[in-house]
Amino acid sequence: xxxxxxxxxxxxxxxxxxxxxxxxxxxxxxxxxxxxxxxxxxxxxxxxxxxxxxxxxxxxxxxxxxxxxxxxxxxxxxxxxxxxxxxxxxxxxxxxxxxxxxxxxxxxxxxxxxxxxxxxxxxxxxxxxxxxxxxxxxxxxxxxxxxxxxxxxxxxxxxxxxxxxxxxxxxxxxxxxxxxxxxxxxxxxxxxxxxxxxxxxxxx
Length: 204
Fold this sequence. Notes:
Elements: E1 6-9, E2 16-18, H1 21-27, H2 31-41, H3 44-51, H4 56-66, H5 71-79, E3 85-88, H6 90-101, E4 106-111, H7 118-124, E5 133-136, H8 137-140, H9 147-157, E6 164-168, H10 171-178, E7 183-186, H11 190-199
Parallel strand pairs: 1-4, 1-6, 4-5, 6-7
Antiparallel strand pairs: 2-3
Helix pairs in contact: 4-5, 6-11
């Protein structure tokens, strides 16, 4: 196994807590109605389409046409999107900081994120300035787990897959990266990440 020289971080779920429930728990108080809304009206697959560059205003208009009775709740999805943002996942930020300060590693990020909402996160989280580069899916009109975005990440930042470690909380994204020869850690918590790094003999 090649020596790791590059660290590629996912952002949401790894360094930044994001959950639509933070908003909709306040808006849709009935849990069954909220579950229906997320399964049928604004499912995660719909949100991922915006991560691939689809305009937010058009996305909401599309759903309102399908579910006109849910118009007000649909408009809140991006109208009050900032309320879905939680705090930084501090334990992972501590690990990121160690990698950034270590001259043996090049540290970048690869995130599925709408280009329209990413600037909100950039203003809130100072550590997003630490990366040598961040590839945002919405800006590139492509997203994980499709192989094109991993190839673009390696090319843009001058990385070799076998010398790179990708950290993501989504197993689907991990498997896609591994299929391209990128070493990976499937993230579940900062403590688990620290243990996995140790098991791979990656010292920071």
